[in-house]
Write a structure and sequence with these properties.
Strand order of the largest sheet: 1-2-3-4-5-6-7-8
Radius of gyration: 16 Å
Number of domains: 1
CATH class: Alpha Beta
Number of helices: 6
Order of helices and strands: EHEHEHEHEEEHEEEH
CATH topology: TIM Barrel
Distance between the termini: 8 Å
CATH architecture: Alpha-Beta Barrel
Mean pLDDT: 94
Number of strands: 10
Largest sheet: 8 strands, parallel, barrel
Length: about 200
């Protein structure tokens, strides 16, 4: 199980997450997010990261030309699309794509199969926010046959990681708010404690 830490806004947080064992770091280029990072700041951080750390750019309903400019500037190597992007939009992207789906009670899981050559990320549904809410959804809704193929997001923390290993075993997990002292600022002790627990379960 891989770990992505999202909402990185500064170098110290990025380097600590990398040191503790994060496989991927997420940089949010959605202007309305509390964890937004300007592309030039992200560029400076990414230059100092290991080439073996995956750098994920998070976008919401962004114009593809803008995405291309940010990719060229920052050298992110994976795109996470967290809005209403359809399958045609995703097919125009040249980098690997993670497509986020916000799960609520009546979500049609068959709808994800319209998207080809993407990784599926499942997050909690919110009327007002595109992720980063710290809320979980009902994991029992996830079809058994895809549990180990998805990226699981939404309120994941040290408290829930044991249940995730036991009941879901997704290909990756995506954390943000549970490792923060405030939106956009990670808490070093929470990061160290989480990875200690995570590594004990592997």
């Amino acid at each position: 199980m891989k770990v992505k830490v999202c909402g990185i806004t500064n170098l110290d947080d990025a380097l600590l997450c990398e040191k503790e064992g994060a496989n991927a770091l997420g940089f949010i280029f959605y202007g309305k997010s509390k964890r937004y990072i300007p592309p030039d700041v992200a560029e400076g951080i990414i230059k100092k990261l290991s080439p073996f750390t995956t750098k994920v750019g998070v976008f919401v309903n962004e114009d593809i030309s803008v995405i291309n400019q940010i990719v060229e500037k920052t050298k992110i190597n994976v795109l996470q699309l967290h809005g209403d992007e359809d399958e045609n939009y995703c097919m125009k992207i040249e980098l690997p794509v993670i497509k986020s789906f916000r799960i609520k009670k009546n979500f049609d899981f068959k709808s994800i199969y319209k998207y080809k050559n993407v990784d599926y990320l499942f997050d909690a549904y919110s009327e007002n926010n595109f992720g980063g809410t710290g809320k979980t959804f009902n994991w029992e809704l996830i079809p058994t046959e895809i549990k180990n193929k998805i990226i699981l997001s939404g309120g994941i923390s040290e408290k829930s990681i044991e249940k995730i290993f036991r009941d879901i075993t997704p290909s990756a997990i995506d954390l943000s708010s549970s490792l923060e002292s405030e939106p956009g600022k990670k808490d070093a002790e929470k990061i160290k404690s989480f990875f200690k627990k995570f590594n004990s379960l592997r």
